[in-house]
Amino acid sequence: MGKRRFGGLSGKLLFLTIAFIMLTEIFIYVPSVANFRNNWLKDRLTTAGVAAAVLSETNTIAPRLQEELLRTTGAVAISLDQGSRRSLIAMSQMPPEVQMIVDMGDMMFWRAIMESFETLFTPSEDLMRVIGAGSMGKVMKVDIVLPVGPLKKDMLAFSVRILGVSFVISIVTASLVYLSLRALFVRPLQRLTRSMVHFAEDPEDASRIVQASPRDDELGDAEAQLAAMQQALNRALQQKQHLADLGLAVSKINHDLRNLLASAQLFLERLEHVPDPTVNRLAPKILATLDRAVAYTQAVMSYGKASEEPPKRRLLALSRVGDDVCDVLGLNEHAAIQFDNQIPVVLEVDADPEQLFRVLLNLCRNSVQVLEAERDETLVRRIVLEAGREGRGVWLKVSDTGPGIPPMLRKTLFKAFQSRSKTGGTGLGLAIAAELIRAHGGTIVLEEGGAGASFRIDLPDRENV
């Protein structure tokens, strides 16, 4: 993450803060300069009107008094309108043409603003005529002619003062606002950015997860959500690494395991020729079990690669599949666990034979491991298979009388490595079962209530079945 200067968020924030405050000061300056011009002209009219009203009581005005009056007001000519007559009170010389006429009695707000800026851009040597109401005696109006220069000079000086003060206020205010916003927003955002970059360098390192601050605002919520997202990503990466390690381990032992199983198959083929009814009955089942063991090794490796084969669906006698599971787990002669296959003999299901067998085997093996872990001999230990047809589909239940599924595991029950609540479990059995059922277009759920754990599977038929 490169080091930014003025082009970063902080610099832009400072610039925009100054710009907006200066814009606000301009809106203040415009009416202020118009008001200053009006007051300046009113002061000149008042001074000229009062002096002229006093002097007008005499028939003649001495030249020295006229010069003093003109000097005080800055005018070149002053006249009074007393209703019945109009009097020229003082005049330095015959004024040339007047370029601007200002009637203070008809001064609207917007007009005052426009004429103020017109004054600022008028040459200083031009003359302006200002008309206003008299302030004493019988004087109705005061009419003075004065050069634009003095007014323009004072207006420019006022503009410099107010703009200077405005600029200082803008800098101070902008700095305070900038420092406040930087402390409240920019620095926390920079911290979040650094945390994301730091986490991205090694997302599998849990120590790099951002630590949410105790802020109770939107940024605090963002930090909490980012921490939760990083934790979820960290767990997902660890699980994926676990799967990769599992696939690598299985691939290493797969070759040697195949050789061992092949040797066992040869021995069993020899046993088939022994004239013993028990051997002849059990040998084919043991061979089938060995074949499935090879297939399961491949299946675990396939799951680690997320490449499970699509189901090859056939019509199956569901009760026979349950009996095969019972034989493989050795539940027919189990001393403590009772296996109760209540599936109707005539019930048929449209499914892949091997994949459905794996699903039932995983579910029943989990139940066996849980029930065998119980040490109290008074407890009932039973596994029950139930099934039936509903419309164009079959439902199947696998239930046991164990302690059930802990509440903390139910949300992630069918995720890999999330349901290892029993000793020696890998956390893959339910994940594999859920994946195989979904491949058939079906669902598997944990039913609430009742003793122990009860899983319900719904398998729809194919369209052409």
From TrEMBL:
Sections of the chain in a coiled coil: 219-246
PROSITE patterns according to UniProt: HAMP, HIS_KIN
Keywords tagged on the record: ATP-binding, Coiled coil, Kinase, Membrane, Nucleotide-binding, Phosphoprotein, Transferase, Transmembrane, Transmembrane helix
A Pfam family this chain is assigned to: HATPase_c
GO molecular function: ATP binding; protein histidine kinase activity
Domain HAMP positions: 183-238
Protein's GO biological process: signal transduction
Protein name, UniProt field: histidine kinase
Organism: Roseibium suaedae
